[in-house]
Amino acid sequence: xxxxxxxxxxxxxxxxxxxxxxxxxxxxxxxxxxxxxxxxxxxxxxxxxxxxxxxxxxxxxxxxxxxxxxxxxxxxxxxxxxxxxxxxxxxxxxxxxxxxxxxxxxxxxxxxxxxxxxxxxxxxxxxxxxxxxxxxxxxxxxxxxxxxxxxxxxxxxxxxxxxxxxxxxxxxxxxxxxxxxxxxxxxxxxxxxxxxxxxxxxxxxxxxxxxxxxxxxxxxxxxxxxxxxxxxxxxxxxxxxxxxxxxxxxxxxxxxxxxxxxxxxxxxxxxxxxxxxxxxxxxxxxxxxxxxxxxxxxxxxx
Length: 302
Known about the structure:
Layout: H1 6-20, H2 26-48, H3 58-61, H4 64-76, E1 82-86, H5 92-101, E2 106-110, H6 116-128, E3 131-135, H7 139-147, E4 151-155, E5 165-169, E6 172-176, H8 179-187, E7 190-198, E8 204-208, H9 220-241, H10 255-260, H11 264-293
Parallel strand pairs: 1-4, 1-7, 2-3, 2-4
Antiparallel strand pairs: 5-6, 7-8
Helix pairs in contact: 1-2, 8-9
């Protein structure tokens, strides 16, 4: 799979360089990239076979502690809304399926896809296991889910809408989504970092970190920034512990990330402006060279 995904290979390697370039050699990064693709291939295969995951097979698929953690999440939502802070790390879809199969009401915030058939395929698999997909743009349904004390799963490591705040991620500035922090502050929801990772024995470990405390002061912007930073710190720690399960196939830092977040029209306008700037710089440099050589500028009366 790695050799067939040239663009994703390049993007993943650049992300790994930023995250681990100071601690791993290029050879180690390439080996890590191969391991990531191997794990991703396994997760894709198992996602297609998600319909075979039932209550009767949970003991074979998950560690014993995973079932206890799912029940603990069910107890949490009895006290109020819970936002499970997730990331593109491990088999998050299987973790959501575990929660849904155990009867816990959960809503999964999902990104859009240009092909409606792909959206339908993914959503049918999710709904078959008890979870309810909610489009990222459907604010009313997200609000309703939190008011109904459902668990709401949100990935916090990609600002797919191009909106968010600047935060630190692996020591670099990163455009981070902030919707989970805004919702937690508005509804008083618990923020619980939640992961589902593959273990050496071939089973999956679904677990939750301690809830993140949401500070509420008169400065809402500062509260949200602090909350986003805390969530990213949890994600970064888990990525460092399990780098072979980090599926960072999209640009995360730098100009490529900025371009991905712009619309096609905005990208075209941006590069047109940049081309104009380069053209002006070229003209000015030409004038400077002419002045140095003593030749008059074109179009001048000299």
